[in-house]
Design a protein that fits this description.
It is a single chain. 2% of the residues lie in helices and 44% in strands. With 270 residues, it is mainly β. The protein has one domain. The strands form four sheets. It has a seven-stranded mixed sheet with strand order 8-7-9-17-16-13-14. A four-stranded antiparallel sheet has the order 1-2-6-5, with no helix packed on it. Strands 10, 11, 12 and 15 form a four-stranded antiparallel sheet that branches. A hairpin with a 2-residue loop joins strand 11 and strand 12. The radius of gyration is 19 Å and the shape is globular.
């Protein structure tokens, strides 16, 4: 973590149907914020991108705000927005923008049952309750939200040390319609090749499931992938980029796979 970085970690309650949903966070609009302005952030759990679907539970959500690697006295509030079906968080932007908000979907374990469906809990826990368990998976996610990126800033490209992390190679401040943006995917700090990334923007498609404007692109040997931002007016919008990684776990009484999701969210304003 470097200077001019704000990290907000939201600890979420694991949803037993989370595997069927996309989860991410984004600012509520594309306006530029100034120091002292109130920033509004939405946390989504959804089938259709940018449309609230399952209300993220506020209980257990914890916020930490850091600046220059130090905790600052920032007041953060969150509450469910029943109309939009999102968790709405607000905080006053401290001095020192550009800033970054990191949202953590905290770990959870969910298991399939032989009768169908998902149940929260490890294999050992559910089997002790007499449940016939199929497969169990550990799941955790992170979303980095860039607020007021600056052309002269370099903090955007510094890895934070997350287990799975997307790091922009192109400064979010320089991303523009008709241009190409480059992203790097890291697993435990090392380049992760051959992992698929997807990207979309808010105006692209909110009517269908799995509606990504860009998909089926894989990282190269250096863990990098390029995304062409469409040359149209609608693409000047709020964007998200996503990478997921799942690996098997051998001989564990708790779960059979680990599943990580990493996202970045930013505004294309040019």
């Amino acid at each position: 973590m470097k200077k001019n970085v704000i990290l907000v970690f939201l600890a979420g309650v694991f949803l037993n149907s989370l595997f069927a949903h996309d989860w991410f966070a984004a600012v509520s609009d594309t306006k530029a914020y100034k120091s002292g302005n109130t920033v509004t952030l939405y946390v989504y759990s959804t089938h259709k991108l940018f449309v609230g679907d399952i209300m993220p539970n506020r209980s257990g959500n914890i916020f930490y705000v850091l600046q220059n690697n130090k905790v600052v006295d920032a007041r953060v509030t969150s509450a469910p927005d029943e109309t939009l079906k999102v968790l709405k968080a607000t905080f006053a932007l401290p001095a020192g923008a550009p800033s970054m908000v990191v949202v953590n979907r905290t770990p959870g374990v969910s298991s399939t049952t032989t009768s169908g469906g998902y149940m929260p809990g490890t294999k050992a826990t559910l089997q002790a309750l007499g449940v016939s368990v199929g497969k169990s998976s550990y799941s955790e996610g992170w979303c980095k939200v860039y607020v007021n990126p600056s052309p002269g800033d370099t903090s955007f490209s510094t890895p934070l040390g997350l287990p799975l992390e997307i790091v922009p190679v192109t400064n979010p401040a320089d991303m523009a319609v008709g241009k190409t943006a480059v992203f790097k995917v890291l697993l435990n700090g090392r380049a992760l090749p051959n992992v698929e990334i997807s990207a979309t923007y808010k105006k692209y498609n909110t009517n269908e499931e799995d509606a990504w404007a860009v998909k089926n692109i894989k990282t190269n040997a250096s863990g990098e992938a390029s995304i062409a931002i469409p040359n149209n007016r609608d693409a000047k919008d709020l964007w998200i980029v996503k990478a997921s990684y799942t690996r098997p776990i051998s001989n564990s009484p708790y779960y059979d796979t680990e599943s990580f999701t990493s996202l970045v969210s930013f505004n294309v304003t040019k």
